[in-house]
């Protein structure tokens, strides 16, 4: 992955970075909806800015990079391709944020399915993620692997950029909050309860402190 980035001219610039630019770029689905929402915002989308504000003060987006890949150990194709990586300030605190966009799309495989006939590389990767997140190995079978590696990506980049905190936020445009329960189950691994539109500290004493959240996006972007 190149380390040189250029500004976008609009939502359409996000399409070419998708794993499948033709299939994934559809009205009413997460990739296109998320791109229009973030490009329309003056900085962070309001629903995400309001989640950060209580944790530090006035919020400022420093940069946002779509389809951001974070290498993970255990396989040559073990990258986590995050929908958005954002660096943001809340008062005196800087956050490294991984954003997972959703409408109706699921969180992919559960660990039960992902670990079927698992290679040594997969098991190495899962052990790395659990150690990074302070979780007991192995996590329960019903937990979605995507939530694990997206959250690990936030911690990895927070350490690399030396930010004050790491956060993984699901930016959902589902009016029914489809798949919210999957995030609730993930949060239970840290013995915390999820509340939509709040940034929840799951490892407040870690270095960096780790937060997760569910942001309810503006459904007007579903028709963009």
Strand percentage lies at: 15-25%
Average pLDDT taken over every residue: 96
Number of strands: 6
Q: What does the radius of gyration come to?
A: 16 Å
First-last Cα distance: 29 Å
Overall structural domain count: 1
DSSP helix fraction: 25-40%
Task: Write the element-wise H/E pattern from the N-terminal end onward.
Answer: HHHEEEHHHEHEE
Largest sheet, spatial ordering of strands: 1-2-3-4-6-5
Summed up:
By secondary structure, the protein is α/β, with parallel strands linked by helices. It contains 7 helices and 6 strands, in the order αααβββαααβαββ. The chain has helices spanning 21-24, 30-40, 46-52, 111-114, 120-133, 145-161, 180-188; strands spanning 59-70, 80-90, 93-102, 165-172, 199-203, 210-216.
Mind explaining what this structure looks like?
With 224 residues, this protein is α/β, with parallel strands linked by helices. It has one domain. The chain has helices at residues 21-24, 30-40, 46-52, 111-114, 120-133, 145-161, 180-188; strands spanning 59-70, 80-90, 93-102, 165-172, 199-203, 210-216. Strands 1-2-3-4-6-5 form a six-stranded mixed β-sheet, sandwiched between helices. Strand 2 and strand 3 form a beta hairpin. It is globular and about 40 Å long. The model has no long low-confidence stretch (mean pLDDT 96).
